[in-house]
Amino acid sequence: MIKALIVDDERFSREELIYLLKSYDSIDIVGEADSGDAAIMKAIQLQPDVIFLDIEMPKMDGMEVAAAVQELKKVPAIVFATAYPDFAVEAFRHEAVDYLLKPFDEEQLRDAIARLEKKLQPIEAATSRPTRLAIEGDDEIHYLTPSDIMYVYREDRLTKIVAKTQMYETKGTLKEMEERLKGFSFFRIHKSYLVNLDYVDRLIPWFNGAYQLELRGSKDTLSVSRNYVKGLRKQLEL
Known about the structure:
The protein has about 240 residues and is of the alpha/beta class. It is built from 8 helices and 15 strands.
């Protein structure tokens, strides 16, 4: 879980952002603050992994807060969340992960969370993730290396795992598989599909903003929902 502190002098802006962030399983909102001074105190007490930080605040603004928390023993990541686009260049001098503009766009927020996860979780994933996954079928258990899995999808109340040489089925949910595969290069391309980015060969425009995905070593063509296209392209370009 990524521990998040929300800082904004406007209560409704805090409430809106908290509401949007609660839809992300990886985000744990540990506190909120309504001023720069309070933000620093909360950062010391709560040791958040990330601060979602407004810029225009009385007395101590967001840039000053971002500079101050660099001196803490545990330095949090910064995502600026502001109504003002003019501070973006200065924001990235503070090594901000992202710069969100109000009113918050859900797609931009999703991209910011993806960057946060990539920045904050690789060390944990490298030390704690399993080298093999146990996939329990009806009468046997298979042990798969995640790098051998090409994609995973949900169909007929079963989760189907397509590996390089074989397909496996389990009654576990797609959400459970997504959690187990965190830290590996998997990305959701559709509400029913996860794909291993290491196997992506071509991304082909289809219609209505959707795309088709071709995988190396597979004849299957997967549909990419338009809601996930932008995030997928950013992941492939990282």
